Amino acid sequence: MEPTVITSTANTLIRRVKGLAQKKNREKENCYLADGPHLVQEAVDSGADMEMILFDAEREDAFRQILAAAGEAGIRTVPVSSRVMQTLSDTVTPQGVIAVLRSGTEKLPADVNGLILVLDAVADPGNVGTVIRTADAVNADAVILSEGCADAYAPKTVRSTMGSLFHVPVIRTGKRAEEIIGFFREHGYLAAGTHLAGKELFSAQVPWQKKMLFVIGNEARGMSDRASEACDLLLKLPIPGKAESLNAAVAAGIFMYQWLEKTREE
Prior knowledge:
The chain is α/β, with parallel strands linked by helices and 266 residues long. The protein has ten helices and ten strands. Helix 3 packs parallel to helix 4, helix 6 packs parallel to helix 7 and helix 6 runs parallel beside helix 10.
């Protein structure tokens, strides 16, 4: 028997899914949305903790591969009308398929041995998403968001990760950056952060090691004083040109690839 297509925006399920566009509802339910075939396919292929997939019934043929994989994984699929899909998507042109996923753990991981990124009140969702995507590229162990960060599960952030949100652990702690730094230093991590008073990133004196924690400061204010004081090492990028500063996600990416180059043979 074919599942009934949901055509009403007043449907209880639709109202719940639509509500996940708001942070308070995401936090209350520990769920978030992934919008579009690329993200949904990545989520299914990665074995992400998925509650359901909603799809435009009029475009079902375009999602055959996703729906088949979802069926094999025992994931619920829900057909909806184009009008309903329009209300669920936050994009101008809905792509026709949306997944509801469960959020990850909030516990700090003590049993990891590689690179960990800590975002110290990084406020722009695009920057948070780009850091997560780059962390995935260098095979970092985790990205940890301190209090004051943009929501990792906001629609813009999720899109910016391009699916990397499903590959690398992302942890929202609600803790201050200095608390997170202290925790990992106790577990043998070398904590480094970006600071104008720091040592040049490409200096031969930088003591690179596999277990490193890198702290990225707020776009406008940089790292907080307490976070910078908690670090073992402060680093800066040379800027021989006239730019006042670098984008937070760009600076983080340069650090991550420098770490990868210096530690990949260990």
